[in-house]
Amino acid sequence: MEPIEFPKNYQTYLKQGQAALAEKKLPEALELFEAAYQIKQEIPINWLLATTAFELGEIQKAVTYMKEKLPEYFKDPHKREFMLQALVVNQEFTLAEQTLWQLQKNQTIAPDWLATWHERIKNQADFYALEKRQQVTQIKTELLALKKHEPAEQVTLSRQIRRLPKSELLTVAKKLLVEPEVFPLVRSFLFEELAKLEVSEEVDVLTIDGILQSLSPKKVGTPAEQTLRIAIEQTLKTRLENQDPVTLAALLDEVAVEFAALYPMPVPGEAAAWVASYLAEFGITAEASDPQVAALRQLVVKRLYL
């Protein structure tokens, strides 16, 4: 959306926002209301922001604005009803319950109204918990059947593991990390997820060379933290950044893929030997390749592409 140029005046932003709202131009209205709110943090504009964001489906944004003016929302029956509705839709059930207790403590609220909302929050919380359990079960089932899919599908499906709670993620990852029919890049991805979660315990992982190793994800770190890979990339940049940036980009992509596939196994060899191998592949140098480096690179090609 093009930036809207108006005098930096609260009333101008407010009027223009209300006009956009009347014309059902909700994104434009929200932008204008936000500009007004930066000038004055008053409840009328806060209400317009919250309701417009809610109507756009930006529930978290609506809730964030309402939290800034909770006492004001408590005072108005219509506003507090809307606030509770937004909290429930945003699955903030604990805060919704806390809000009810606060209302009950500080104001004269009809018991029937409180009872109705307590029941509504409980029902929605129970439904969400059940739905969440069903989603977790479905994701686990799909992940544990990864080996039935082609490599490209495995890569896509494996990303669902991020939607699992940490304990479930660890359980599923442990099973897939030792499965030979799971694509090597998927096993590398799963181990990396454990590293990002700083899982310190050792887990068994079948590395690309077919060896079962017990490694601590936290100690191994992520692929981006591999010192050998960093040294290789830096050396290539020093050699080619000014001389041949196109070839450099291609080589850096190749390094990223190969080291992702080799991860999390400890990769042998010196950076200079790896750099020589990459440069020789592109005809930039005629240096003889280190046999160990060449063997590993051929292994990656075999496992990923053949």
In words, what does this structure look like?
By secondary structure, this protein is an all-alpha fold. 69% of the residues lie in helices and 3% in strands. It has helices at 10-22, 26-39, 43-55, 59-67, 70-75, 77-89, 93-106, 111-144, 151-158, 166-176, 184-196, 217-220, 227-240, 245-262, 271-281, 291-305; strands spanning 203-206, 212-215. It has a two-stranded antiparallel ribbon with strand order 1-2. Helix 2 (26-39) packs antiparallel against helix 3. The chain is elongated and about 85 Å long. The mean pLDDT is 90.
Shape: elongated
H/I helix tally: 16
- State the helicity in percent bands: 55-70%
Beta fraction: under 5%
Give unreliable regions as ranges: none
In quaternary terms, these chains amount to single chain
The biggest sheet amounts to: 2 strands, antiparallel
Question: What is the tally of beta strands?
Answer: 2
Alpha-beta content class: mainly alpha
Provide mean pLDDT, rounded: 90
How is the topology of this model organized?
Layout: H1 10-22, H2 26-39, H3 43-55, H4 59-67, H5 70-75, H6 77-89, H7 93-106, H8 111-144, H9 151-158, H10 166-176, H11 184-196, E1 203-206, E2 212-215, H12 217-220, H13 227-240, H14 245-262, H15 271-281, H16 291-305
Antiparallel strand pairs: 1-2
Helix pairs in contact: 1-2, 2-3, 3-4, 4-6, 7-8, 8-10, 9-11, 13-14, 13-15
Task: Give the gist of this structure.
Strand 1 (about 205) and strand 2 form a beta hairpin. The protein has helices at about 10-20, 25-40, 45-55, 60-65, 70-75, 75-90, 95-105, 110-145, 150-160, 165-175, 185-195, 215-220, 225-240, 245-260, 270-280, 290-305, and strands spanning about 205, 210-215. It has 16 helices and two strands.
